[in-house]
Design goal:
14% of the residues lie in helices and 32% in strands. It is α+β, with helices and mostly antiparallel strands and 183 residues long. The chain folds into 2 domains: 7-67 and 167-182, Alpha-Beta Plaits (2-Layer Sandwich), CATH 3.30.70.580; 72-165, Alpha-L RNA-binding motif (Alpha-Beta Plaits), CATH 3.30.70.1560. Strands 1, 2, 3, 4, 7, 8, 9, 10 and 11 form a 9-stranded mixed sheet that branches. Strands 5-6 form a two-stranded antiparallel ribbon.
């Protein structure tokens, strides 16, 4: 009887990296960072988003990670200063495409978190327009969901970093770094 080892890779996806192993437009992909065979992304981050991506060789785990079973935590930089009504709307639920989505939790931070790395290219800033940082937790992870939610309440996203999915977090991984967890 052979033993089966489950592989989980925690990867800090840099900005402007495709969440797939091939790209017809020859953009940077996971192939440029991940050498392990037979692993697949459990969910995605869009090209402009950064942060935690989990890859695994286990289809059942991949499905569990993308389901509502695991909360997804995001650090979001938005243009402007959120008003209480905007944050309340995100907590209560806002229409996005053909569904209503709501934050499990949302918190306005007093300042930019210290662990946030410089992004290349840098985020654009307007001289007369302040930016704010939020932590938002969702129980789902639909296509461009955070960006669409924020746009619905009038808070354009400048930067989006996923920091945690269920029990897995970025910890001290720098952009482009990975940590392999085999069980």
């Amino acid at each position: 009887m052979s033993e089966y080892f489950l592989t989980v890779i925690l990867f800090n996806k840099p900005h402007q990296v495709m969440c797939q192993f091939t790209d017809k437009q020859e953009r940077t992909t996971l192939k440029d960072y991940i050498d392990e065979n037979e692993v697949y992304a459990a969910g995605r981050l869009d090209y402009d988003s950064e942060g935690l991506l989990i890859l695994t060789d286990d289809g059942r785990l991949q499905h569990q990670i993308t389901s509502s079973q695991y909360h997804k935590h995001y650090l979001v930089q938005v243009e402007g200063l959120p008003k209480r009504a905007q944050l309340d709307a995100l907590r209560k639920g806002v229409p996005v495409k053909d569904y209503i989505t709501q934050a499990v939790s949302i918190e306005l931070l007093a300042k930019k978190p210290g662990f946030v790395w410089k992004r290349h290219p840098p985020v654009r800033h307007r001289k007369n327009k302040p930016t704010s940082w939020l932590v938002i937790i969702l129980n789902e992870g639909k296509n461009r969901q955070v960006r669409r939610m924020m746009a619905t309440v009038g808070l354009p996203v400048l930067r989006l970093i996923r920091t945690q999915i269920g029990p897995w977090s970025l910890e001290s991984l720098k952009p482009g770094e990975k940590k392999i967890v085999t069980t």
